[in-house]
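Figure 3 (text version): structure tokens given as input.
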């Protein structure tokens, strides 16, 4: 009876959710589904953080806070950004958000006009396509190519710039490829951003989940970049706090003053006691983060080796996050067909690469945020399923 606004045409349901819901239905029917589609940690939130939240509620910390977040958390975040990322932000340069999801929305809402172009990776977490569309801005995709180890190609980015290009989105370590952009790439990118006077939005939500010799570098730490960068980060992935909805944006005050105006009309402020627990996460939970990181690395090493042993299947070794972007082109089917087939035949849920953009065709995304033993089982099932598929060809 009531028609949603025309703007809503730009907001489809997420392809990851579609897969997840189908897998859940099959599970309810009694099938033993292995979930490798979900982008959320399988660990509980560290005890020290949960205790800080209980204590905060007990103390009566249950009211609105400043729109910007509590002074104590903003200070702890500024200190963290100095300590871990080598960027000198003052507490006034921090806005506490309801996750990076909100930070993304606020940055795009506050800094793009209809028709402005935003350079966005492909494949990508699709908020970076749909949120610009919602505001009439134009996402212009740059491709992350497997043959380039999914490093972004700064020359390609340069060739996509027009006088309408206003913003550049980067995500390292990245979803869905797990790629950590190198210092060399980031330096070239920084030069481009300065030359073209672009705002850089840097989504660093997976920063602590890096493996082997890989090192996370914040682009705002490079010379002349802090003044044009909005650094987005949050607690969901590294601290296993997806349901707590806590994140932050760090940027010069002119940016923060605009972002807070979007934020105040959506959320007023982040949850009071969650903010207090966030301070404990930053100050006391590093050992817990390292335990999780090591376990992810063990799973990654196993899964990458197992996948590359399956005839017709190949993947690069991702250096970060908890995803593997697996090349399944040799089977001559679409990503969606392969993901559907694996769910039906092997009862392993994955996400078709095309849920992250057109250049994801020929790939599926596997998340290894699931128990090691389940990954072992999934690899055995997938090996059989792929062998059957190859035999049918
Ligand atoms: N950025 C990226 C790249 C993500 O993959 C996700 C979650 N899938 C988010 C942001 C969302 O973060 P949050 O829970 O802090 O909103």
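Below: residues designed for each position.
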């Amino acid at each position: 009876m009531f028609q949603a606004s025309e703007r809503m045409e730009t907001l489809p349901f997420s392809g990851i959710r579609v897969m997840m819901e189908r897998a859940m239905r099959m599970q309810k029917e009694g099938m033993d589904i292995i979930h490798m589609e979900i982008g959320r940690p399988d660990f509980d939130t560290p005890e020290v953080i949960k205790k800080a939240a209980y204590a905060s509620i007990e103390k009566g910390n249950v009211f609105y806070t400043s729109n910007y977040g509590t002074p104590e958390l903003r200070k702890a975040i500024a200190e963290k950004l100095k300590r871990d990322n080598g960027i000198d932000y003052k507490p006034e340069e921090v806005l506490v958000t309801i996750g990076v999801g909100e930070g993304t929305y606020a940055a795009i809402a506050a800094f793009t006009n209809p028709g402005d172009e935003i350079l966005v990776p492909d494949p990508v977490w699709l908020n970076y396509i749909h949120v610009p569309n919602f505001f009439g801005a134009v996402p212009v995709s740059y491709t992350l190519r497997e043959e380039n180890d999914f490093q972004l190609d700064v020359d390609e980015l340069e060739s996509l710039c027009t006088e309408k290009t206003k913003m550049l989105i980067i995500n390292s370590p990245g979803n869905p490829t797990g790629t950590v952009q190198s210092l060399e790439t980031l330096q070239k990118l920084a030069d481009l951003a300065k030359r073209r006077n672009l705002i850089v939005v840097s989504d660093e939500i997976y920063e602590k989940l890096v493996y082997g010799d890989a090192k996370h570098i914040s682009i705002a730490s490079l010379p002349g970049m802090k003044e044009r960068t909005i650094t987005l980060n949050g607690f969901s992935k590294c601290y296993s706090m997806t349901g707590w909805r806590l994140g932050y944006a760090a940027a010069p005050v002119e940016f923060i003053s605009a972002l807070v105006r979007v934020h105040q009309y959506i959320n007023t402020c982040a949850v009071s006691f969650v903010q207090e627990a966030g301070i404990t996460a930053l100050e006391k939970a590093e050992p817990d983060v390292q335990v999780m990181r090591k376990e992810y690395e063990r799973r990654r090493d196993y899964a990458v080796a197992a996948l590359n042993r399956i005839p017709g299947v190949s993947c690069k070794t991702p250096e970060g996050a908890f995803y593997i972007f697996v090349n399944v082109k040799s089977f001559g089917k679409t990503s969606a067909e392969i993901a559907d087939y694996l769910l039906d035949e092997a009862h392993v849920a994955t996400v078709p690469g095309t849920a992250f953009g057109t250049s994801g065709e020929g790939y599926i995304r596997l998340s290894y945020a699931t128990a090691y033993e389940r990954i072992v089982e999934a690899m055995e099932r997938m090996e059989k399923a792929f062998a059957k598929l190859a035999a049918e060809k």
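Residues 47-284 form a domain with the Aspartate Aminotransferase; domain 2 fold (CATH 3.40.640.10).
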